[in-house]
Each structure stands twice: as structure tokens, then as C-alpha cells.
């Protein structure tokens, strides 16, 4: 989901704001792993902790409390966290009383087992239990092991104003749903995040408006399946669909860009597509995970669409919005996948002409439907070879997509300096492509919209210069 680099692109990135200006008696340090929703949750956690006397710090040695907000989506994601935990041993030794907490999906999946397996951990808190963190910290402070992994049917943290961590001040994530009601057979999320629930529409619009007033220029609405957003106002008994919510957020200002992630191919409606067309500030980019190009495998995955149905959805998007870019998630080597199924995946990528893809090989997750029903029978070397073929196809497709942009004039929202040079700006197009261009004109600044002429590209980046410069 999302960008900002959605999913594992941001894994392992430290994610904490500088020591707060107000003086706190205690400090916490938080790192987030996994999807954008986890990063958004860390901002809710920061808010809860700041209201209870804990300031945030990005200097781990200053922290009284270290938190890892974890991901369980693939085995590797969990291994990364376990490795990170061992690195805290020395810190704990040097600073008696230092508490280490595991939050998020691994906490939910492993529950108190995590305390047995990882002796260093003092706190285990699932994604729906963050309001109880202050109590749990107190409990852990007395030497007890503190655990709360209760899932909720209605917790959305709607009333909590997230404290933006490590923000560029331009783009922010806003959660609109939690949990997932789909049962994709490979996926651990329904078990770690619980039932799907939609957040109060007023609180979402209010949060986005507040961000805009603070100078933010882009919001990304987050959910595992945003198109199934559905909120019923108990006072008026009227309901808000995702398309309506999107429109209400877009109406805040034409200079506030609106993005969303993730769209499930079975749920994205024409109504959403037409709302995207109606507002220039709704970005023309859809993340539409396909997972596999084989109808037989899709069925085993319980994705509830066929190859043809998926391709007709892509065609519909292109028909309504010819300039819309599309990205996908793909899993290589799911249970029973044959060479022919794999070829179907390669060919659906060609047919869909993805601008970008997030690609993984299948990692069996305990407790999922696939783990219960099917044998993880594709040898690792075959999974990896197929994944490499998928990566190669996408490399060509992304190159072709970038080539098509050469010569175009694109509108770019400037996010900050380019990673490689402070003499260059970095920003994104509506289609979510990264653009780098020389600063030259000193009057423009971060958060401005500028027109850039594209003249070249490197892997993953369009290169250009300001129009009329
Ligand atoms: N809600 C989103 C995806 C969330 S997980 C959706 O429905 O598309 C992000 C991606 O991780 C998935 O799209 C899938 O491609 C990948 N993924 C999930 N479980 C996986 C597993 N067990 N092994 C490998 N990749 C997996
Ligand atoms: Fe997982 Fe499927 Fe839900 Fe996405 S839609 S979170 S892949 S179960
Ligand atoms: Fe996200 Fe990973 Fe949990 S992808 S929902 S943090 S399992």
C-alpha cells in the first residue's frame, strides 16, 4: 500500500521525530516495519504516549522505552525484527529499567509466546490495544511482563490526532479503515488486524483539513481494501461510500493532492473511477494487486476474480482515465504453481502494462488458509527463479513506461531535496513517478507545484528541468 514507498521499501527505516521541544521526563524511540498502515499507527502511538508524558526521540540511547512496530506478512519481515531485538541486549545491559516493547502484527500473531521466545521483550501490544499502552508501560515498569493483544470490532482511533513522525511536512498518511474481511489464503493480515471497520468520515475529513492547514499538500487514504470503506452515520442513518469520502477529501482544496491505497480489484467501482476523473487533485494512480495471472492459482488464493475479470478492470480504468498509472503486487511460487501458471503471470503483466510492481516470493504464514489446506510445494530455487523473471519483465515495463514520459510536461509536487544532491529537487507526478530536476530557480520551495519537462530517466526516476528555465 502505499507508498510512500509502500510495504517493505520502507522496512527497517527508523521512524521517530526529534526530541520534542517540550520537556518530557521520559522518552520513547519507535521503529516501524511493514506497510504504510503500520507507519500511520506509529503516529497514533506517538500521540497516546505524548499525552502520557513520553516525548519521542530518534536517539535510541536517550530512550527509556524502545518500541518496534512490527510486520508478519512474510517470514523475512519477522526475522528482521528478531535480529533487531538482539541488538538491544547491550542497551538493556547499560541502562537498567530500559523497556522494550513489540507492537503491531507480530505482537498479535505470536501473543505471549513472543515473551517466551524473546527474553528481552517487556511489552507485547497488538494493533487494537494501543490505548492501553500507558497502563502496560506502568505494569512493565514494575517488572511484570505486560501483554494486550485483544482485537476489537470497532476501534479506529478516530479521535486521536496522530503526531507526525519524521514527516517531510508535505505528505501524510491517514487511515480510513482497519482490519480486513477478505480471506486471501496466503495472507496473515485478517488474523493480525482483525475484522474490517471503517472510521468516522467526519474525523477523516477533519484530519485531512487540519493537515492542509498545517501546510501539507498530499494525503494518502489508507486501508487494506479502501474500496470497501462504508461508514454509517448513527445520528442521521446516512452512509458514506469510498467514492463519497474521496470526493469530500478532494473538496478540501484543489491544491491538496489525494491518494489512496490499496484497491482490491473486486471492489473498485466505476463510481470511484469517475470521482477520480472529476477532481484533478485526486492522483491518477491506482495500486491494484493482482497476485497471480493464472485463474487457477487466483482461485486457490481466494482472490475471487479471474484473469479475464482483472484485465477487464484494467481496461475499464484505462478507458475512463487514459493517463492513470497502475501498479500491482505479485507473488511468485504459490502452492502448486506450474510453469504454465507462472507464464500466465508474466503475460498478465505485459497485458496490464504495469508502471510499477511490488514483487515477492511466497512465504507460508502459520495459521493462514493456505498453510492449513495446501502444501508449500514449490522449491525455493524455483520460487526465486520465477521471481527474478517477474522482476525482469517489470524492469522492461517500467522502462517503457518511463520512456513514454520523455518529452512530456508534468506537474510535480516538490517533496524536498533529491537524495543524491541538494542542488536538485525531488517530487512526484500525479502518476506517482519520482522526478528529479535541478533547482536553479531559487524562488521555488518544498511543497510547491511546478511544471517539469522530462528529458531522460534512470531506473525508477524521471529526470527533467523546470519549464521555461
Ligand atoms: N491488502 C492488500 C495487500 C496487503 S499485503 C491487498 O489486498 O492487495 C501486501 C502484499 O504482500 C500482498 O498484496 C501480497 O502480494 C504480499 N503478500 C501477502 N502475504 C504474502 C505471503 N504469505 N507471501 C508472500 N507475499 C505475501
Ligand atoms: Fe490480505 Fe487479501 Fe486482506 Fe489484502 S485483501 S490484506 S491480501 S486478506
Ligand atoms: Fe501491514 Fe505487515 Fe501487518 S503488511 S498489516 S504490518 S502484517
Q: What is the approximate shape?
A: globular
Q: Mind summarizing the main beta sheet? A: 6 strands, parallel
Structural class: alpha/beta
Rg to the nearest angstrom?
22 Å
Separation of the first and last Cα atoms: 36 Å
Strand order of the main beta sheet, please? 2-1-3-4-5-6
Determine and state the CATH class of the largest domain.
Alpha Beta
Give a count of the beta strands, DSSP E runs of length 2 or more.
21
User: What ligand species are in this complex?
Assistant: S-adenosyl-L-homocysteine, iron/sulfur cluster, FE3-S4 cluster
Q: Count of DSSP helices?
A: 15
- CATH homology group of the largest domain: tm_1862 like domain
| Unreliable runs | 1-21
Here the CATH topology of the largest domain equals pyruvate-formate lyase- activating enzyme
- Give the second-level CATH assignment, the architecture of the largest domain: Alpha-Beta Horseshoe
Mean of pLDDT: 94
- Total individual domains: 3
Determine the fraction of residues in helical runs and give it as a percent range: 25-40%
Amino acid at each position: 500500500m502505499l507508498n510512500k514507498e509502500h510495504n517493505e521499501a520502507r522496512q527497517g527505516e527508523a521512524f521517530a521525530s526529534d526530541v520534542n521541544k517540550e520537556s518530557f521526563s521520559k522518552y520513547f524511540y519507535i521503529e516501524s516495519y511493514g506497510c504504510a498502515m503500520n507507519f500511520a499507527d506509529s503516529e497514533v502511538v506517538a500521540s497516546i504516549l505524548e499525552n502520557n508524558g513520553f516525548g519521542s526521540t530518534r536517539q535510541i540511547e536517550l530512550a527509556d522505552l524502545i518500541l518496534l512496530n512490527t510486520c508478519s506478512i512474510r517470514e523475512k519481515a519477522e526475522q528482521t525484527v528478531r535480529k533487531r531485538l538482539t541488538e538491544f541486549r547491550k542497551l538493556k545491559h547499560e541502562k537498567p529499567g530500559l523497556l522494550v516493547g513489540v507492537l503491531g502484527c507480530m505482537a498479535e500473531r505470536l501473543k505471549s509466546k513472543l515473551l517466551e521466545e524473546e527474553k528481552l521483550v517487556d511489552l507485547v501490544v497488538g494493533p487494537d490495544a494501543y490505548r492501553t499502552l500507558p497502563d502496560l508501560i506502568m505494569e512493565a515498569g514494575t517488572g511484570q511482563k505486560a501483554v494486550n493483544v485483544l482485537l476489537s470490532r470497532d476501534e479506529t482511533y478516530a479521535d486521536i490526532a496522530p503526531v507526525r513522525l519524521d514527516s517531510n511536512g508535505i505528505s501524510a498518511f491517514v487511515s480510513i479503515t482497519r482490519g480486513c474481511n477478505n480471506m486471501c489464503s496466503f495472507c496473515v493480515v485478517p488474523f493480525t488486524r482483525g475484522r474490517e471497520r471503517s472510521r468516522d468520515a467526519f474525523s477523516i475529513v477533519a484530519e485531512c483539513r487540519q493537515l492542509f492547514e498545517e501546510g501539507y499538500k498530499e494525503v494518502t487514504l489508507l486501508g487494506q481494501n479502501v474500496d470497501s470503506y462504508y461508514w454509517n452515520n448513527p445520528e442521521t442513518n446516512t452512509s458514506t461510500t469510498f467514492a463519497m469520502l474521496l470526493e469530500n477529501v478532494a473538496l478540501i482544496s484543489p491544491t491538496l493532492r489525494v491518494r489512496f491505497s490499496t484497491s482490491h480489484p473486486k471492489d473498485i467501482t466505476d463510481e470511484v473511477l469517475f470521482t477520480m476523473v472529476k477532481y484533478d487533485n485526486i492522483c491518477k494512480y491506482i495500486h491494484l494487486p493482482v497476485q497471480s495471472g493464472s485463474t487457477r492459482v487466483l482461485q486457490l488464493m481466494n482472490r475471487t476474480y479471474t484473469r479475464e475479470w482483472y484485465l477487464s478492470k484494467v481496461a475499464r480504468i484505462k478507458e475512463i482515465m487514459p493517463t492513470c498509472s497502475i501498479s500491482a503486487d505479485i507473488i511468485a511460487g504459490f502452492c502448486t504453481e506450474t510453469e504454465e501458471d507462472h507464464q500466465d503471470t508474466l503475460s498478465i503483466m505485459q497485458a496490464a502494462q504495469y508502471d510499477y510492481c511490488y514483487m515477492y516470493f511466497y512465504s507460508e504464514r502459520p495459521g493462514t488458509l493456505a498453510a492449513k489446506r495446501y502444501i508449500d510445494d514449490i522449491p525455493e530455487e524455483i520460487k526465486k527463479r520465477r521471481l527474478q523473471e517477474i522482476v525482469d519483465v517489470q524492469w522492461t515495463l517500467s522502462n517503457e513506461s518511463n520512456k513514454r514520459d520523455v518529452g512530456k510536461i508534468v506537474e510535480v509536487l516538490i517533496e524536498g531535496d533529491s537524495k543524491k544532491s541538494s542542488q536538485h529537487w525531488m517530487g512526484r507526478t500525479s502518476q506517482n513517478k519520482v522526478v528529479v530536476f535541478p533547482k536553479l530557480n531559487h524562488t521555488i520551495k518544498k511543497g510547491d507545484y511546478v511544471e517539469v519537462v522530462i528529458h531522460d530517466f534512470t531506473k525508477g526516476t524521471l529526470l527533467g528541468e523546470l519549464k521555461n528555465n
